[in-house]
Amino acid sequence: MIYHEDKPSGLAFPIIVILIAMVAIVGSLVLSSGHPASARVWVPATSAGP
Length: 50
Known about the structure:
about 0% strand; mainly alpha
């Protein structure tokens, strides 16, 4: 008689990869929205006008 071994379905690896990607996306959004940078424009003194 031949016994078939139960093989894992392989579903755990894709779920882990998706969860890591979601955490990375949320983390990057949190880090980028934490410190809003103000826009700075440099205007030379000679072109500022009289």
